[in-house]
Design goal:
With 362 residues, this protein is of the alpha/beta class. The protein has one domain: Rossmann fold (3-Layer(aba) Sandwich). It contains eleven helices and seven strands.
Length: 362
């Protein structure tokens, strides 16, 4: 699978080769999921993924209408990773650490849509009280340790949470301390020092953490296989003696099953897992990105693997739900998202008198 980096002068060849490599890697993963799913689980996953997709679509609408400002990075296409990983974990028990593409992680973690949307509008009712905006969502109540504007920033924070869980059990004697932390980050982060340093420490101390690589193939405008000596990120776990696993990140059931395996290892004291999810963002890097670097052929390849459509086909084929039920859920989600926008627009702005509030701990 490993291949040499493509020279920057031959971007056409790079795109073609990258699409071919993606197809080959995904084909090898198609039979990786063999478990079962209940009707209730299927509906919950569909609802969570639909909320993520429709929420992001509404954000794009608000941004292009001039109602939302700043940098906004959307998650469209990657919903199976957020729903699959966080959906397998224990909300308000386990911990989550995100990136600048954090809206959907927050929603999957249980942060109300009203609070997330309010934060994007910079309102006092936002989950970060309007101080964080799109890239810095935070909710102690929902164990969301934050979104981070700089790549790799969140990984050491997630490592600290995992260390806390292990310390409570080993040093303080809390036998019920088995919380696991999921650290989300992209393929571009995997060439940075924090990534390697934290993998080393996590494996050395057998910390309960899952390093979730959302490999969407592009670090802004840099193709993944032009930026790393080995494009198969999960293999880098071997250098630390860590378990590494590659999964189809467009298949929520495969992601969920892989996460369950990682959780079992972590809670048993067997340490961390590096989970590489092969996925794709359907929009540009941010809403300010004209998205001219990626080929139409590549975009079409991934659009045909839309995680929402794939889950719907699975649920229908297994006779678990009807299409009418799913359309009804979509209408409910649309109402929820519209309510979130209306709530956010009507909410109060932060008071200027509170400018220095939340800078220091009380």
């Amino acid at each position: 699978m490993t291949k040499a980096s493509t020279p920057a002068s031959d971007q056409t060849t790079s795109k073609t080769g990258q699409a071919s490599e993606h197809a080959e890697r995904l084909t090898n993963l198609e039979s990786s999921y063999s478990g079962t799913i209940s009707r209730e689980e299927g509906l919950a996953l569909f609802r969570d993924m639909t909320l993520g997709r429709r929420f992001e679509d509404k954000c794009a609408e608000m941004y292009y209408r001039g109602k939302m400002f700043g940098f906004v990075h959307l998650y469209n296409g990657q919903e199976a990773v957020s729903s699959g990983v966080i959906g397998a974990m224990k909300l308000k028990h386990d911990w989550f650490c995100s990136t600048y593409r954090d809206h959907v992680h927050a929603l999957s973690a249980g942060v109300p849509a009203r609070e997330v949307m309010s934060e994007l509008f910079g309102k006092e009712t936002g989950c970060s009280k309007g101080r964080g905006g799109s890239m810095h969502l935070f909710s102690k109540e929902h164990h969301l340790l934050g979104g981070y504007a700089f790549i790799g920033e969140g990984i050491p924070v997630a490592l600290g949470a995992a260390f806390t869980s292990r310390y409570k059990k080993d040093a303080l004697g809390d036998i019920n301390s088995d919380a696991v932390t999921a650290a989300f980050f992209g393929d571009g982060t995997c060439n940075n020092g924090q990534f390697f340093e934290c993998l080393n420490m996590a494996q050395l101390w057998k910390l309960p953490i899952i390093f979730v690589v959302e490999n969407n193939k592009w670090a802004i405008g840099m193709a993944h296989d032009r930026a790393t000596s080995d494009p198969e990120i999960w293999r880098k776990a071997k250098a630390f003696g860590m378990k590494g696993e590659e999964v189809d990140g467009m298949d929520v059931l495969a992601v969920r099953a892989a996460t369950e395996r990682a959780l079992k290892r972590a809670r048993a004291g067997e340490g961390p897992t590096l989970l590489e999810c092969l996925t794709y963002r359907f929009r540009g890097h941010s809403l300010a990105d004209p998205d001219e670097l990626r080929s139409e052929k590549e975009k079409e390849f991934w659009a045909n693997r839309d995680p929402l459509l794939s889950l719907e086909r699975h649920l229908n084929e297994k006779g678990l739900v009807s299409s009418d039920e799913l359309r009804s859920i979509e209408k409910e989600i649309d109402s929820e998202v519209l309510d979130a926008v209306e709530f956010a627009l009507a909410a109060e702005e932060p008071s200027p008198s509170d400018l220095t509030k939340y800078i220091w701990a009380d």
